[in-house]
Amino acid sequence: MEEQSSEALKLQEYWKQSLVEYTSDSSKLHEYLKQNLVDFPTGDEELKMFKFRAGTSNPTFLLRKNGKEFVLRHKSPVEVHVGYHKVDVEYKIMSALGKTSFPVPKMYLFCEDKTIMGQEFYLMEYIKGRQFPDANLPGVPPDQRKVIFEAAIRTLAQLQSVDTDKLDLDGIGDKENFFHQRLDMLYEGYKQSEIKEIPKAHQLMKWLTENIPKDDKKPVIHHTEFRISNMLFHSEQCQILAVIDWEAASWGHPFEDLAYFCFPHHFPPQLDIFPAFKIGYRSEGIPSEEALLSLYCELTGHTLPLPNWTYFLALVFFRLIVNIQTGIAQLRSGSLELPINLDAIVTLLEPVVEHACTIVGLK
After folding, report:
1. For 115-141, how does the pLDDT look when each residue is reduced to its tens digit (9 = 90+)?
2. Whole-structure pTM over 0.90, yes or no?
3. Rounded Cα distance, 188 and 322, in Å
4. Is 361 exposed, middle or buried (0-12, 13-18, 19+ CB in 10 A)?
5. Which stretches of 112-171 are assigned E, i.e. beta strand?
6. Which of 22, 144, 298, 335 could form a disulfide with 49 if both were Cys (CB 3.0 to 4.6 A apart)?
7. Alpha carbon distance, N-terminus to C-terminus of the chain
8. Which residues are CB-neighbours of 52 under 8 A, at least 6 positions away?
């Protein structure tokens, strides 16, 4: 058994303390909800608020009053991820998907009035379920890990089967030119958070721009961060109750979310620096990439090998590079608090760039 470092144990303990009481004045919000939410308790009982440690990109809160619970999510006061923080898009997509059989929380209201919480926000259903910050699913039996991963692929196939022509999805992105929009956003995010010049990162971006796949695949709703930690599972069964965290969602190619879900199979073990929060899939029972892709093809009608698969993996790795830089900037500024070694993350950046370039044959 792998021995866990003191840093890993600190991170585990941090995530266990998932809710912290919010002590700021909530009277204005309380009054707003009593006036605007039909099912909100109207009595004089206190409104209690707790902040989730997860969901730090857009602050997320649990509200409790008179036995009822809701989740509030408001836009971050500081943009730290280019293309993220879109709580209006998040609300719109989940509201639209709520009219289908796809598992999302029920949406209650969206508030554009920034005087209530300082930023626009929305309120949604609180779903009590299991959430796994570490996709290696520590503590879960290997046979259940397999079922959980297969459930995720089935849910992705379900998302991509939704008839989007019947949904109100105006304003979620450029449906015709989503690749160019994605690459422009990523490059802008990279330049804004660049810590030091890494020529190969720019070389990779150039390669991605020059090798955009040309096929006839119909655009689908692209979650952008379709991973185990963004799914709520039944407390006892391997059933997905809801997919959450749609703040960066837009239109995309069907293979983008699939590549994001599978890329940890390509993450080098020597770079997996957090035993309590691994990037690579290392645990017994997690299906191989081949098994995941085969199930996806069985469900969607695609055939193996998937065309341009290397391109989609490279695109995901570049997004990871941008996210690492952004995370470093957040930790340095104090806007993100995690009990982890900042230097360890900084040293991770250049080797990830090197590995991504190796995937596509850039030297």
Report:
1. 999 999 999 999 999 999 889 999 999
2. yes
3. 9
4. exposed
5. 121-125
6. 22
7. 37
8. 18, 19, 60, 61, 62
